[in-house]
Design a protein that fits this description.
The protein has 233 residues and is α/β, with parallel strands linked by helices. It has ten helices and ten strands. Helix 3 links the parallel strand 3 and strand 4. It starts with a helix and ends with a helix. The N terminus is likely disordered. This is Polysaccharide deacetylase family protein. Keywords: Hydrolase, Metal-binding, Signal. InterPro entries: Glyco_hydro/deAcase_b/a-brl, NODB_dom, Polysacc_deacetylase_ArnD.
């Protein structure tokens, strides 16, 4: 990995608290971030105390469904966070470029969706670095946010670029149920200021549910942000 990546990563990392995957630590970080709300305009009036939430999507991009999701988010003026599998970037570079150009956060989800705690240190590093390099080659920006598959954190990898783990506190189980009503019910019951919502953009039901979540929560006064806005102090 190029030396320049190291300096860029360290510079961006300054002052940022490492975000581990344990649910407890995620909730603490989210709770802290929730205290700082940004004014937004709702129904023509400025809202000083509006809650925030982050939509995050793993395992993409999907040639079939990600474009539909991006169209819906653009129409609604919403930014999301995408944690990409390196193997799915191949042949979908234009989609990744579109994500970046439209202001979405792009993060690393390994190359082959491996459990980095179950493979050798060498293989885990290669999985992460290979995807990071592919993203850099595609958009010219090296991703510093990592969501390891299954949320399993490994801190012995000594990566050339310091990466920050991103967890979640609402798991929609969309990959399992593939049922829009079930997804919506989970979010409705668990949503709070600062929530990080885990979804996947490879299923039609997930895309439909995500856009419905945006519509419903926007009516309740929520503002959707990328995860870095919740995690950075």
């Amino acid at each position: 990995m190029k030396k320049g990546f190291l300096f860029a990563g360290l510079f961006l990392a300054a002052g940022v608290v490492l975000f581990a995957a344990e649910r407890k630590r995620t909730d603490q970080a989210v709770g802290h971030a929730a205290a700082e709300k940004t004014a937004i305009r709702v129904s023509g009036e400025v809202c000083e105390e509006c809650p925030r939430a982050a939509l995050t999507f793993d395992d993409g991009p999907s040639k079939k469904y990600t474009p539909i999701l991006l169209d819906g988010l653009k129409e609604r003026g919403v930014k999301a966070s995408f944690f990409l599998l390196g193997r799915n970037i191949e042949g979908n570079e234009d989609l990744v470029k579109r994500m970046h150009e439209e202001g979405h956060l792009i993060g690393n989800h390994t190359y082959n969706h491996v459990r980095i705690t179950k493979v050798s240190k060498k293989e885990a590093k290669e999985e992460i670095e290979r995807t990071g390099n592919k993203i850099y080659e595609t958009i010219g920006v090296y991703p510093i946010y990592l969501r390891p598959p299954f949320g399993e954190v490994r801190e012995d990898l000594e990566l050339p670029v310091e990466l920050f783990y991103v967890s979640w506190n609402i798991d929609t189980l969309d990959w399992k149920t593939r049922n829009m009503d079930s997804i919506l019910q989970i979010v409705k019951k668990q949503i709070k200021d600062g929530s990080i919502i885990l979804m996947h953009d490879e299923y039609e039901t997930s895309v439909e549910a995500a856009l419905r979540i945006v519509d419903d929560l926007t009516k309740e006064g929520y503002r959707f942000v990328t995860v870095d806005e919740l995690l950075l102090p």
